[in-house]
Amino acid sequence: MVDAQGDRLHARVHRRPNPDAQRHALIRAGVAEENTYVDHTSGAKSSRPQWDVVNEVLRAGDVLMCTRLDRVGRSTAHLVSLLDEFRRRDVAFRFLEQGIDTTTAEGRMVYRMLAAVAEFQRDLIVANTNEGLAAARARGRKGGRRPKLTAHQAELAQQLYDAREKTVQEIADLFTVPRSTTTATSTKKPAL
Question: With contact defined as beta carbons under 8 Å apart, do 56 and 50 qualify?
């Protein structure tokens, strides 16, 4: 999707809205209609067919143009990751509504600010998670899923297994748990 100036351009829309408004905005910005790619899949999906095509055709010196930042990335961190990849590939980008254009010094500055905010956001999430885990441990709680078998049930399952009275599957059925739970609670792993 190369226009007369050599720009590679991409439009992404949500499933419900009509993509015409975004397509017209790109055309007004100088993009040839045949050079716009429109995905009708959710932005939450990591693989979007037309997005994948755009990524394949982008070359050094190209400019990726979108109507808005949220048409490209699923989150700030995802957006910054994509934009870092473009920068490494020497691909510039323009976001029409936000006026971000990395072919200019101002656009590169805004991008760097975005990257700093995303890094700060990641650091806060990690710090808050660690703080919450430490507080839970201090209250005597431990993380992870609760065991499906009580200590008594696990002991009984082990005894049944050791006595070879029942198969692993029969033990699992007896306690209405998956076979993998029965094997995980056994101190001696059965030879399968």
Answer: no
Three-state secondary structure call for residue 8: strand
The answer to whether the pTM exceeds 0.85 is: no
Residue environment code for 67-91, b if the CB has 16+ CB neighbours within 10 A, otherwise e: bebbbbbeebbebbebbeebeeeeb
Query: How many residues would you count in the chain?
Result: 192
User: Residues 6 or more apart from 91 whose CB is under 8 A from it?
Assistant: 8, 58, 59, 60, 61, 62, 63, 64
Residue type, 1: M
Paired with 12 in beta bridges are 39
Mean pLDDT across 144-170: 86
CB 114 within 8 A of CB 76: yes
Rg (CA), the chain: 27
Confidence of residue 96 (pLDDT cuts 50, 70, 90): confident
Greatest CA separation found in the chain?
Answer: 79
CA distance 12 to 1: 14
